[in-house]
Each structure stands twice: as structure tokens, then as C-alpha cells.
Amino acid sequence: MKIRTKIILAFGVILAVMFGSGTYMHLQMLAMKASYTQIIEEEQLLTDLREMQFIMTGRNNDERAYLLTGDEEFRKELKGKAAKVDSLFAKMNSSLESSHHREKMEEAMGLYKSFLESSDKAVEAQDNGLHDEAIAHHFGKERQSRVALDSVVSGLVEEVRNEIEVDRQELAENEGISAMIQLFLMQWEFSSRLWSAVF
Q1: Which residue, 20, 22, 10, 2, is CA-closest to 192?
Q2: C-alpha to C-alpha distances, 189 to 13, 184, 192, nearest whole angstrom
């Protein structure tokens, strides 16, 4: 084999390796972008779930305060917090991609509706002067629904938190691979420039 053929073959191999590495690097960058997007969406879901837990706790405290004091200000808070929870459910349902998460969210919504029905009965009983009945509703079925709802939402929070951790680990691995490929491409570029300068 002539020297010229060997040089052309060597440049061909270098170009093929650089093209292949560049293509792989591009695909890795797209995967990293998708991972970043997924992590951001999961972080938002986690924030919404935690906010819902916080609002539900506040709503429960407001109802208890209304039952104890009869102050209308607490009743207004109940309506406002119910609207916030409804909007959070709508927001989260529109962004869920996982069928498992959708199932859990539907379960949570069913428990939330049961909770609201019991809550409405407690408030209605208090409005009608039936304080003992209102307390019975509040600490009876309503409490059971609230505890079950909190359990489902807490489970979702833990699942999403674990998914975020897995996605971050995968992202770190992809970033490491991309850094190695970039280093490899820079070395090839340096080698090819050196080769061109020498010959």
C-alpha cells in the first residue's frame, strides 16, 4: 500500500471517528435536555403536591377553628383554600404523564371529594346549631378521608422525590459521558491539526 493511500485512509478513519463521536455527542445533548426538562416538571409536581398538603392542613385547622368559635372569617378561608386545592388538582392533572401517577391522582381526587362532602356536612351542622354533630362529622368520616388523602399524597411525594433522584443520577452519568467525548474530540482535533502542520 502506498503512503498516499495510508494517509487518505488514516484521514478517513479520523473523520469517521469524529463524525460518529459528534453524532453521539449530539444525541447525548438531546437526552440531557430531555432529562433537564423532566426534572423541572417533576420538581414542579413535587412543589404542587407539597403545597396541596400545606393548604389541606390549613383548611383543616380553619374548619376546626370555625367549629370552635363560629367566626365567619374561618368559613371564608375554607372556601378560598378549597378553590386553591381544586386549581392545584387541575394543574397537576394536566401535567401528569405517568399512568401510575394519574391513577394515584384520581384516587386522591376521590378522597378529596369525600373529604369535602364530610366537611360540608360538619359546617352545615355547625350553621344549624348542631355543634356535637358537627364535631362528630369533623372527627369521623372527614378525618378518615383526610388521613387517607394525606397518605396517598405523601406516597406520591415520596415516589416523585425518588424519580427525581434517579433522573439526576442518569443526568450526571450523561454529563460525564459528554465531557469524555468532548475531550476525545478536542484531542482528535489537536492531533489532526498537528498532523496537518507536520505534513
Answers
A1: 10
A2: 13, 9, 5
Other residues' Cβ atoms within 10 Å of the Cβ of residue 147? 11
Q: How does 84-94 read in b/e, with b if 16+ C-beta sit within 10 Å?
A: bbeebbeebee
What whole-number distance in Å separates Cα of residue 117 and Cα of residue 28? 50
Q: Which domain holds residue 77?
A: 3-198
| Residue pointed to by grid coordinates 383543616 | 60
Most confident of 25-29, 124-128, 181-185, 188-192: 124-128
| Dist CA 85 CA 90 (whole Å) | 9
Number of structural domains found in the chain: 1
pTM: 0.70
Distance CA 101, CA 107 (A): 10
Task: Give me the CATH number covering residue 64.
Answer: 1.20.120.1730
Q: Say what the pLDDT of residue 190 is.
A: 67
CA distance 122 to 145: 13
Are 96 and 102 spatial neighbours (Cβ–Cβ below 8 Å)?
A: yes
